[in-house]
Give the backbone structure.
Amino acid sequence: MTVFDQIFYTIFMRFKLRYKRKANTIALLYTSVLQIAIVFLLGCFFAAFFNQMNYNAMSSDKAWVLFIIAAIIIHVKNWLKYNGKTRKIMNAKFTKKKAPNHNFGLLIALPFICFVLAIVFLQAL
């Protein structure tokens, strides 16, 4: 199990009691947004780093197109992974052992923190 699988399951179980049918969609969207935020943060970091090194490998427009394509691929990958059989396997694995306990407030704040840090790196450009 990867860290993102554990985070998906934590969010899924947190919302399963309140929103029975929408819990999977909420957990899927959260996991996708978190992964996209991390990719955005890494992209902004490397853009600022390469700008400081006076290295121009890619134009800004091409970088944004690449980011949008990566975001679509991440969401489709997660949609295929966390719908159906894989989620049922995760349910079976986590019910046999104790499910990981993550701080829910930190999990909710994590994508926002990534986006704020990425905007700080974008200001450095």
Notes: The chain has a mean pLDDT of 89.
